[in-house]
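Quick one: co-fold with guanosine-5'-diphosphate.
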Amino acid sequence: MADKPHMNLAVIGHVDHGKSTLVGRLLFETENVPEHVIEQYREEAEEKGKSGFEFAYVMDSLDEERERGVTIDIAHQEFDTDEYYFTIIDAPGHRDFVKNMITGASQADNAVLVVDVGDGVQPQTKEHVFLAKTLGIDELIIAINKMDTVDYDESDYNQTIEEVKELLKQVQFNTDDTTFIPVSAFEGDNVAEPSDNTDWYDGPTLLKALNNLAEPSEPTDLPLRLPIQDVYSISGIGTVPVGRIETGEMEPGDNVTFQPSDVGGECKTIEMHHEEVDYAGPGDNVGFNVRGVGQDDIRRGDVCGPAENPPTVAESFQAQIVVMQHPSVITAGYTPVFHAHTAQVACTIESIDQKLDPSSGDVEEENPDYIQAGDAAVVTVRPQKPLSIEPASEIPQLGSFAIRDMGQTIAAGKVLTVDER
Ligand code: GDP
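Sure, here it is.
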């Protein structure tokens, strides 16, 4: 299992379209849930008159939520297929998906979009597809779910995929190589086994489509970028910053720097899973020790990189954003908190440079007075404190952010250019 490549998968879609049920079904079909656990859930669900809901139950770790029969925590479930070792990352709606997608330990490599065949494209379907694109997901697998509710009717399926295709075109996903699959998460049709109920469909099952995904490339050819999550002081070793390597590689003896704190030195030791290692690469969670760097010299939100190619610190930057929700309008001068990798920094939107047509990416208006929910725009941003961030075209892993205000994710964006300090 360990030698299969790893893939982070986001499962997105409108609330109640069946994301949790589908993930439960996938775990079950790939034998990542013991039969007796499923059996237990099945009995419990039947007792409560919710038979068939047991797959959603698999993901439900909270009794109270189980009682209500709604929210399922599908975050960080894992399963493996013939080709890959998958981690499901936070799904939107259940937790703060956008924030976690950007600042959490996992960025999605690919996504499965779940659309209820009877309900079609809904507001969150749009929002999530927008986000997936903004955050750099290029390939979507579309599961048209609840086919059992329409008697596996081909024309209902076709009608729904036309709606979805329309949306994908708007957001500039290439629909030619998008895989659409008619499924019933509930009944298991076309999840692991081709279904007899859909003899008009000759495409892959969901599991096959997952296996067919292109392997994510390991960004070892990019410079080291290691956002710091925490800084510990450990007796006998000294200061130990910890974090996940987003790009590049690291070895003891490397000369590293922390930005924006602007300190550095020679990396003495690297630890992974409590063992000393002589190499660490993308995706590795490491603790390490750097000669001459004390606990108070660095902090969460710093990025560690090679001394000869240090992380970029922005005086200001230009970014493309998608506004997801805002009670009123956003104008120049707005100063919410930007969450980028492990950093949280108040930043002022200094100017709104262009409003974009979300369907084509074309400029709709130069220097608009305001933007609001649903708009895409190019903005110039000035961090109120030093912030290390990179152009998404150069280091995508360090080039996206979420904008938060009033306890909500207001917008998501990617960095176009950086004006360095
Ligand atoms: P989520 O909010 O997208 O995670 O949706 P859930 O997985 O919680 O499912 C919402 C509701 O739809 C639940 O009552 C499920 O039992 C039901 N559901 C999910 N998938 C199917 C399906 O394939 N067929 C039918 N009939 N119901 C389904």
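If it helps, The longest helix spans residues 154-170.
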